[in-house]
Amino acid sequence: MGSVVKQVRMALSGDEAVAYAVKQSDVDVVAAYPITPQTIIVERFSEYVANGEVPTEFVCTESEHSALTACLAASVTGARAFTATASAGLALMHEMLFVTSGCRAPVVMAIANRALSAPLNIHGDHSDSMAQRDSGWIQLYAENAQEVYDSIIQAFRIAEDTNVLLPVMVGLDGFTLSHTLENVDTLPDDVVKQFIGSRKIPKVLTHEGKMAPFKLDPDNPMTMGPIALPNYYFEFKRQQEEAMKNALSVIKKVNNEYAKISGRSYGNGLIEQYCLEDAEVAAVCLGSTAGTMKTIVDELRAEGVKAGLLRLRTFRPLPVEDLRSALCNVKAVAVMDKCMSFGGNGGPVFHEIRHVLYDADVQPYVVNYIYGLGGRDTSPRELRSIYSDLQRIVAKKRVETPIQYLGLRE
Amino acid sequence: MTKQEWKFTTKDIAEKPDLFLSGHRACAGCAPTTVLRLIMKATRGPTIVTQATGCMEVISSIYPYTSWAMPWLHTAFETAAANASGIEAALKALKRKGQLKHEHVDVIAIAGDGGTYDIGLQALSGAVERGHDFLFVLYDNEAYMNTGIQRSGGTPLGAATTTSPAGTVVPGKLEHKKPIAEIMVAHEMPYVATASPYYWRDLIAKARKGLEVEGPAFLHVFAPCPRGWRTEPAKTIEYSRLAVETCVFPLWEAVDGKYSLSIPSMVFARAPEKKKPVTEYLKGQGRFRHLFMPQNKALLETIQRLTDEKWLKLLKKCGEATVSEPASSSS
């Protein structure tokens, strides 16, 4: 599989791209519960099951809490498991997110990113998955339906890598990606199957003193999800952090290998740099906003402005070194958050980018733009204003308003 | 209707190696550990066990030790049935792909009353509605014992717990015990039964039946807790017997929704004079001590009356309605 394979172009929404990728990924168990704007994923997948197109066991649970729990249990039984949710559904899963990562179950989950209540809102922002940033899950955010498709396939490889063994969530912006039809180039079934391979289960030392596969196996009884007291709990958690570190190189490797068969890559898998090399002013964003931002960067470049963009594809684990080296020569950085951290002095991505740049030799100015909450549309004109603000900061050598709300009625 | 396909002798049971091992950290006189040991005697081949958070989970799995000589999974408090759903789905999928070494693997989910009546009810109801093939075992010690004796939906009327204490105004729990096994029968599931560790042969046979039936099975096991009930550890099995003899906890099963009394309780249907007054069961339990104070006489009578009414209702369901009024009314 050294060269790019012939692909079939399909018209798929982001949700459909997820369902199609899961269909091709030889998934054993899908357990899910419907929630807007994720529902199409479950519906399409149900159709595959109903038409006998997949051998997958589909468990239509009574809640998201049980959906993730069933995936976790299936995963530790040795199966490949997938689920999808959004917003309140992800919030309901909160408890089990930690259990899943703590049990080292490589479950893959698509998140059709949506606002959290109250007030009730079904539209896109990143409040749901950002609230789960410390749950021990790897988080990837896709820019378009093509990347959604590619990322789901990659997610199984990343999650199941025996140096990682962590669950992965792939974020796609609610409605903007989940419900918008795009051209998606799809790989042949056998190529996807071969790329992911069968599930690898590492051997571990059991309480009986022998090496056995890390799963529920009647031939090798293993106690999974035990209680650990203060004398052992800490070590479990430290190992999860080590796995997160390992994930950085695995995500890069999978991105490279996938590029060889598909001809598509997303930066280095962790971050994507756009006109950043010589940029004086740059923005950092996640997800679909990057598409519009790239157009604006092109316009500004044509006008002679040294503008750039960094799209953070992998938010967890945070690619600290990559971010620092990519941004340390920029004079002013605008970090965009589609989420609020109430009382936290800016949004979560802002916090992390500033944290990364603290160790740079020369710290750029770093400002925060909170935008698009509850699906509020952000116009190209508004996005463009971010760069003019940055230019002003560079000229004045001073930040007047470190945290701004873009497109807000005040 | 309740024909027993699996015949076993006491010797068979004694000779079968334990799958739930000693060395765990349960209290003296703990009935749930006895229940688990008996349930595991009923296994018929490769089996995976999953447990809700609770006493039996924490006393048996303290890392790096375990009492489980079988594959075992714990994830959270409310998730025993959801775990079973996922395990069973995985087994089906792996079998379909030829990746399962065994022809069949049984799945047993275990939870206490908190993990069944209350926080785990949604997951249990969902899993049963979906028809997963698993046995759900409820060990009912009638309160949240793991967190220190708080009331649950399974705590009986009048019982004192740390969140339904017997005070000067409120005499313990004011609400009745939720009829969980009947709620499960209402799910139109293939097998539901109640059991008590005193009648251990009945318990093992029912656990086996629950495993053999295709689809979900629910076994409600009465399980005294000396710490929570304020009873003597040596009397655990005695209370397991008295609960049945007073018809506080009758033994029955419902196969495909058809109720039938089990032999230990049949005695009291056929010979009502043998049925003991509830006070025989209540007295000596610290959690009911206040009921014997003069001001709570009416409550004690209510408990007897409700027990009788429930027993008569059960007799009707079991087709034993010809039986006359029980010998003991209020004492």
Q: What structural keywords apply?
A:
heterodimer, A: 410 residues, alpha/beta, Rossmann fold, 2 domains, seven-stranded mixed sheet, six-stranded mixed sheet, 39% helix, globular, B: 331 residues, 13 helices
Written account of the structure:
The complex is a heterodimer of chains A (410) and B (331). Chain A has two domains: 8-201 and 240-262, 3-Layer(aba) Sandwich (Rossmann fold), CATH 3.40.50; 271-406, Rossmann fold (3-Layer(aba) Sandwich). Chain A is built from twelve helices and 18 strands. Chain A has helices spanning 14-24, 39-50, 64-76, 87-102, 127-130, 145-160, 189-196, 233-262, 289-302, 320-327, 348-357, 380-396; strands at 8-12, 29-32, 57-60, 81-85, 108-113, 138-141, 168-173, 182-186, 203-205, 211-213, 223-224, 271-274, 281-285, 307-312, 314-316, 332-337, 365-371, 403-406. In chain A, a hairpin with a 5-residue loop joins strand 9 (203-205) and strand 10. The longest helix of chain A has 30 residues, at 233-262. Chain A starts with 7 loop residues before the first strand and ends with a strand. The model of chain A has no long low-confidence stretch (mean pLDDT 97). By secondary structure, chain B is of the alpha/beta class. Chain B has one domain (10-317): Thiamin diphosphate (ThDP)-binding fold, Pyr/PP domains (Rossmann fold), CATH 3.40.50. Chain B contains 13 helices and eight strands. Chain B has helices at 10-15, 31-41, 55-60, 80-96, 114-118, 121-129, 180-185, 200-212, 226-229, 236-245, 263-270, 278-282, 297-317, and strands at residues 47-51, 72-74, 106-111, 135-140, 191-195, 217-222, 252-255, 258-261. In chain B, a hairpin with a 2-residue loop joins strand 7 and strand 8. Strand 11 of chain A pairs parallel with strand 2 of chain B, so a sheet runs across the interface.
